[in-house]
Amino acid sequence: MSSDFEGYEQDFAVLTAEITSKIARVPRLPPDEKKQMVANVEKQLEEAKELLEQMDLEVREIPPQSRGMYSNRMRSYKQEMGKLEKDFKRSRIAYSDEVRNELLGDDGNSSENQLIKLREERAHLLDNTERLERSSRRLEAGYQIAVETEQIGQEMLENLSHDREKIQRARERLRETDANLGKSSRVLTGMLRRPHKNHLRLFQFTDEEHETRGHSAIYPAQIRTQAARLGSLHTHQLCYTRKCPTHPLPVSLLRTHAASLNSSHNRGSALRNSLNVIL
């Protein structure tokens, strides 16, 4: 790409040198040769403009990090082109004055006021031309800025699209994790309920055993206190509907019952503490 740009530069340099030489020769040529020379210069100026357009396209395709140097060179070439056009316009104005004088037979005796007016009009036209050229350069600079801004916007949209995909994947992972946590919570809740069920079953088994043996007496107060201290359920009512004073509760059965309650309570407490640490 840079080789093409350099080739256009060489062609532009050769062409502008020829145009400069011909513009300088226009005022000194005879009328017939002047007319032919002006047409030739106009054609070469069009070729120079086409070369500038090709060079501008090449610069736009250069990566942004190395585009600055070529942009500066393009600005200098455009300024040189503007200067050539101004010189050519001045030479054409001088050529038109000579043709007018030849056609009208003007021998330099025109009034001074008319000459001043013509010079003012020429200066005004040149000023307007310069303003138009400056406006054109500003428009070109604005166009380049718009192109660069569009490229930056496209890169930002691509980055936002990638970020959106990452956020969506993270959201899906969070949903899966939430579902797994819900399942784990239900499993742990079931594990926590098992020790309480075991306590109820143990008391039910003990009550049935006493019923079959005929021990239907009410538990003494010290048995209630000991059972509560060993970790039995407070909601369980330790009582029987029938009284049997002649058949008290055996001490061995009480010890076995208390040991079972203590072991079950310890296992339930350990499991509960472990689950609290995990949660």
UniProtKB/TrEMBL annotation:
It is found in: Endomembrane system. One of its GO terms (cellular component) is Golgi apparatus. It comes from the Eukaryota. Pfam families: V-SNARE, V-SNARE_C. Keywords: Coiled coil, Membrane, Protein transport, Transmembrane, Transmembrane helix, Transport. It is a single-pass type IV membrane protein. CDD domains: SNARE_Vti1a. Residues 34-61, 115-180 form a coiled coil. GO terms for molecular function: SNAP receptor activity; SNARE binding. Its main location: membrane. Residues 124-191 form the T-SNARE coiled-coil homology domain. One of its GO terms (biological process) is macroautophagy. Belongs to the VTI1 family. This is Vesicle transport through interaction with t-SNAREs homolog 1A isoform X1.
